[in-house]
Amino acid sequence: MARRRGQTDDLEVDPSGWIIDNDLAQFMLMHKQEIKFMCMFGYTFMHGCKVFSNVPPTASLAYKFVTMLLACTGGGILVPIFINSIPVPLCTDAYPIAIFTSFLLHNYFPILRGVAKESLIIKSILVFMYEVLRAGVVVKLTSAAGAAIPASEFSFPIFGPIFCGCLAGCGGAFLPLNKGLDPIKSGLAPNMLSALCGSSAFHLFMNTSLSDGIKDAKLKAHFFVAAFFVVLGLIIALDINVGKLLKAESVKKENDKESKKKR
Question: Under a CB-based contact definition with an 8 Å cutoff, are residues 229 and 193 in contact?
Fold first, then answer.
């Protein structure tokens, strides 16, 4: 459309718009329902790998299914109860569908677990989808808790939303509740630490001056949380020794310097 004479260009230039203005970011933000359901399937399938590896083979189908349901939606059950809302599996029909589909695949085609375990490509894809959805859950429930919990000593609630966001990313480890504190008896698992760091960074960024003046601050913060989860998840799943890689890189640089001096 042609601009009228004397009309000024009111379009704002977003210097950090490149962060979410790309296909990778749009996928990690799950901007379409199709992408969200695909990530949901990867998320439930990965949980199924853990559940079926620990559940006794002689256990009933009902026991296996309920165990998998709790593992997949633990945080989505506990956090809404804390903030007086509806648990995720009751208000989101896509979750039970994805869980039931993954359950059938694990139960009747156990060879798929072996493929996911041995193939680095398949494992990386599943971990990527798993972490993308987990980041979405952490961001969503941290925001919901921040809106539901009233402020007390400070201008906004601090520890409540962070705790809820952390639980959103690892709540399945504590269900059923007869496990008690056994999941953290030997220390916090990597997914617990990542959920704690992600929810803390997201909540403090969104509620302090750090996000002032940033366009689409929530989407950009969501992307960084998802990227953090994906990178950490791939490092753990692929057993990448970061310290060894850094040491090898430093040795290579020293050797290059010595070779240049000799020349």
Answer: no
In angstroms, the CA 229 to CA 198 distance is 8
Residue 72 carries which side chain, given as an amino acid letter? Answer: C
Burial 100-133 (b: 16+ CB within 10 A, else e): eebbebbeeeeebbeebeeeeeebeebbbbbbbb
Kind and range of the H or E run holding 222: helix 217-237
Residue 74 has pLDDT above 70, yes or no: yes
The CB density around residue 160, as the number of other CB atoms within 10 Å, is 19
How far is Cα 146 from Cα 157, in angstroms, rounded to an integer?
6
Give the number of other Cβ atoms within 10 Å of residue 154's Cβ. 9
pLDDT tens, position by position, 198-238: 999 999 999 999 999 899 999 999 999 999 999 999 999 98
Strand blocks (E) in the chain: none
CB 46 within 8 A of CB 126: yes
What does the DSSP 8-state code read for residue 179?
G
**Closest to 36 in 3D by CA, of 171, 134, 125:** 134
Q: What is the pTM of this model?
A: 0.87
Q: What is the secondary structure of 42-94 as a DSSP string?
A: HHHHHHHHHHHHHS-TTS-HHHHHHHHHHHHHHHHHHHHHHTT---HHHH-TH
Label residues 189-200 b or e (16+ Cβ within 10 Å = b). Answer: eebbebbbbbbb
Tokens of 22: 């790309």
